[in-house]
Write a structure and sequence with these properties.
Layout (H helix, E strand, L loop, with lengths): L9 E5 L5 H10 L3 E5 L3 H7 L5 E4 L6 H4 L7 E4 L5 H4 L4 H6 L3 E3 L6 H17 L1 H9 L15 E5 L3 H12 L3 E5 L12 E3 L4 H5 L4 E4 L13 H6 L5 E4 L8 H9 L5 E4 L19 E3 L10 H18 L14
Helix pairs in contact: 1-12, 6-8
Length: about 325
């Protein structure tokens, strides 16, 4: 059934072309929407003043133009990460105007958790080395490990971190987590530390996985002291945000043997430049910010959007509402 039988008109601006079928499905569920397509800055400059609700990826939102709309009430991103918005020069004004900001938190929690586990299994079973051998037509049996009995420390126990904890436990791993509020435990997490004790948290880890969002509190959080605290045979994995890592310190830790290797899906500069030293490291696996990619991305996103539209129209608390100050 549609969200409402007699919906008031809402001028709904799309800043990303997600395909006609998703727009059609959206309008079928909420016939009161007047869709405004504005896929570039020029179009947003022309049409932003009309918009009440905006949907798009953060890097496609022209925030300075959107602020010109006296009707703007709600921005729904197509991503879980909103650092491009909350860390922009326009965030304070958006907050003061009372513009609701919601994200897609939870959209790809299982997918990104799988990607992190793939890094772990790859390092344990050394598929990357076997692929190198295959290209050289070599047949050498390498020393390998297995996940059961390993300790994983997850930095950030949001939806992704919790999903990863569940998968790690299924593989027989001991799970340690780092989160701000340690007063309550979490399912599948054996030990919990506050960020101030991150060095202690990683000290016995075989794998340290960052699923942290980028905020003022997490920027540069993972630096030389963290890598020095990790065992020499441990691996670092990042499926969160590149800017939480001091990359020079990570490279030094890799070169000095302070850690065994790294699986990296995110970086400070993306695309990763061709001359990046990360490409050259044999003990590093690079994926191009694809941990959250999967078929039917927009279908899942539409489900979250429709539930939020229903709540928006009924005046209920919105799902995944972002706190501008906290950054998530």
């Amino acid at each position: 059934m549609p969200i409402c039988a007699d919906c008031r008109e809402i001028k709904f601006m799309l800043t990303h072309d997600w395909g006609d079928k998703y727009t059609a499905s959206l309008c079928a569920e909420d016939p009161g929407l007047e869709i405004i397509e504005a896929f570039d800055r020029e179009a947003q400059q022309e049409k932003a003043a009309e918009a009440e609700v905006v949907l798009g990826f953060p890097d496609g939102l022209e925030l300075d133009l959107l602020l010109e709309s006296e009707n703007l009430t709600w921005i729904q991103t197509l991503t879980a990460g909103v650092d491009r918005i909350v860390r922009s020069p326009h965030a304070e004004e958006l907050s003061k105007k009372g513009v609701i900001l919601t994200n897609m938190s939870g959209l790809h929690r299982d997918i990104i958790a799988e990607h992190a586990m793939a890094f772990i299994l790859n390092f344990n079973r050394r598929f990357h080395h076997y692929r190198d051998q295959q290209k050289k037509q070599e047949w050498n049996r390498l020393e390998m490990g297995y996940a059961a009995g390993n300790m994983i420390t997850i930095l950030g126990l949001g939806s992704i971190g919790r999903e990863l904890a569940a998968r790690a436990r299924a593989f027989g791993m001991e799970v340690t987590g780092v989160k701000r509020n340690t007063s309550t435990g979490l399912k599948y997490v054996d030990n919990i530390y506050p960020p101030a004790e991150i060095e202690e948290a990683v000290a016995s880890s075989d794998y340290v996985v960052s699923a942290l969002p980028l905020t003022s509190a997490t920027e540069n959080m993972i630096d030389g002291r963290v890598f020095a605290a990790m065992p020499d045979e441990s691996y670092f994995i990042n499926v969160g945000r590149g800017d939480v890592v001091v990359e020079e310190d990570l490279l030094k830790a890799l070169d000095d043997g302070e850690i065994a290797g790294a699986g990296l899906d995110v970086f400070r500069e993306e695309p990763l430049p061709e001359d990046s030293p990360f490409y050259e490291r044999e003990n590093v696996i690079v994926t191009p910010h694809v941990a959250g990619s999967f078929p039917d991305y927009y279908k899942r996103a539409l489900d979250i959007l429709l539930e939020n539209l229903r709540r928006y129209r009924s005046g209920e608390e919105m799902m995944n509402r972002v706190n501008y100050e906290e950054g998530y």
